[in-house]
Specification:
There is one protein chain. The protein has 6 helices and 9 strands. The protein has helices at about 1-40, 80-85, 205-210, 230-245, 255-265, 270-275, and strands spanning about 90-95, 100-105, 115-120, 135, 140-145, 165-175, 180-190, 280-285, 285-290. The strands form 3 sheets. It has a 5-stranded antiparallel sheet, with no helix packed on it. A hairpin with a 7-residue loop joins β6 (about 165-175) and β7. It is elongated, with a radius of gyration of 28 Å. The N and C termini lie far apart (about 90 Å).
């Protein structure tokens, strides 16, 4: 009886030891996995300049590296520091003739993402910042950038007749339709913007008409704007005029800009005739957005 009991203890002890060992290994692996998850860095976009996830700051440091901080949690993909001070690679300057404008301090690649943000308000409540307000969602009021620290995109100029846009708004918004506080709309560069070249946003023809302002070129010798490309349509118009054929109506920008914004401009004519100052007009891929 004693030998049988001793044999049983010899058999079960290694089994118990093995079970304890496997449990220790399992717990250790769980701790390692949790540590890796905690220290895991953000995904970086292919351009290498900014983070890809909205949980991390989208700003780029002065040396051209993505910010290493998490987003502050105010609906916007910016850390507290860059939310208050702005993106370090953007620089706001002043033109005595046409007003403030925005340039990058490094070459911006196509597809660089940023946010036009501000306080959500009803349009009639937007006073000081009405000239720079942008429509927020459908029937969601406007994005008022006035007196919002770190808001730089409000200073993007509108291209003149001989210049072209290089940014556009997307369908991505930050914040709910009737949310109080900061909200925003994603903007993206449509082409490479060289260092110290102006960043351009299309306001819409109605924006100028409602304010009685004549649109003019804004580029300077030191801070130029990208020139309008010669279009095939323009060349055909020139050939038609030379040959005595039908004369086509000239388009102000010579590209798709006015075609895309035509619908939005037409819908704003009633408001313009009543003397109402309209929000800026934005461009979205495929069709127009009055924003």
């Amino acid at each position: 009886h004693r030998s049988r009991s001793k044999e049983t203890q010899i058999v079960t002890f290694p089994q118990q030891l093995f079970r304890i060992f496997t449990q220790i290994i399992f717990i250790f692996n769980e701790m390692v996995a949790a540590g890796k998850e905690e220290t895991k860095g953000p995904r970086v976009r292919k351009n290498g300049l900014q983070n890809a996830d909205v949980e991390w700051c989208w700003a780029t440091t002065k040396v051209g590296k993505p910010c290493c901080r998490r987003a502050a949690g105010d609906n916007l993909p910016y850390c507290r520091q860059h939310l208050e001070s702005g993106n370090p690679i953007f620089k706001t300057l002043d033109n005595p003739t046409t007003g403030k404008f925005l340039v990058p301090t490094i070459d911006l690649p196509k597809g660089y993402r940023m946010v036009y943000f501000g306080t959500r308000r009803r349009w009639r409540e937007c006073k000081d910042g009405s000239d720079r307000a942008m429509t927020f969602r459908d029937n969601g009021g406007v994005i008022d950038p006035f007196a919002v620290p770190g808001q730089q995109l409000q200073y993007m100029a509108c291209p003149g007749p001989g210049e072209r846009i290089n940014t556009r708004g997307t369908d991505k918004y930050f914040g709910k339709r009737f949310e109080d506080g900061l909200v925003g709309r994603e903007f993206v560069t449509t082409e490479v913007i060289p260092k110290h070249h102006q960043m351009m946003q299309w306001y819409g023809n109605s924006w100028f008409e409602a304010r009685g302002i004549t649109r003019e070129n804004v580029g300077t010798a030191r801070y130029p704007a990208l020139k309008r490309r010669a279009s095939v349509h323009k060349e055909r118009c020139r050939e038609s005029n030379t040959s005595g054929g039908d004369v086509h109506r000239k388009r102000v920008l010579g590209e798709v800009t006015n075609i895309l914004s035509k619908e939005g401009d037409h819908s704003n004519k009633t408001a313009k005739t009543k003397g109402v100052s309209l929000p800026r007009g934005g461009i979205r891929a495929g069709n127009a957005v009055t924003a």
